[in-house]
Amino acid sequence: MTEFIFSMPKVIGSNARVLILGSMPGQESLAKQQYYANPRNQFWRIIYALFDQPTDPAYDQKIEFLKKHRIALWDSVHCCTRKGSLDSAIRDERANDIPGLLAAYPSIRAIAFNGSKAFAVFQRYFKSSVPPNVALIKMPSTSPTPSRYPKTQAEKIQEWSQMKRYL
């Protein structure tokens, strides 16, 4: 029997304005208990590029950078079964309590979805429970896994920059 894997605790400061939702951390991230720990994932490079800053190598500094810029980080999936790290392998998912998070942090003005799976899970469970003042922004995945719609890092940075208007 396959065991459930669980997402990591949310990263959020008291004045968060944008919530970035991934789907479920990959094996490397879960093992290290660090969001986007796979060095091939473009997440941290993209986030730092949005503010014209070099990426800090220390994870705790990355987390402080997010909080300083009023960005929260979590996952749409609370737990699931999955072999490997691919979103396409996620089965039996149970969602995180996103409506509860939004109620606890009314300063959040936008949810940026890191890839299609994060958005699809959110839509399946919470489509009708989004406050009207919260924008939903579907972003291209930062994953190192090739997708059907490849984009350069520069193109991804351009698309991800739209979340800055909510900060």
UniProtKB/TrEMBL annotation:
The alphabetical list of record keywords is: Glycosidase, Hydrolase
**Listed SMART domains:** UDG, UreE_C
Supply the InterPro entries for this chain.
Answer: Hypoxan-DNA_Glyclase, Uracil-DNA_glycosylase-like, Uracil-DNA_glycosylase-like_sf
Q: What class of enzyme is it?
A: hydrolase
CDD domains linked to this entry: UDG-F6_HDG
What region holds the Uracil-DNA glycosylase-like domain?
9-164
- Documented EC number(s): 3.2.2.15
One term of GO molecular function:
DNA-deoxyinosine glycosylase activity
Q: Does the keyword Hydrolase apply?
A: yes
Query: Which superkingdom does the taxonomy of this entry point to?
Result: Bacteria
Query: What's the protein called, per UniProt?
Result: DNA-deoxyinosine glycosylase
Please tell me the species this chain comes from: Sporolactobacillus mangiferae
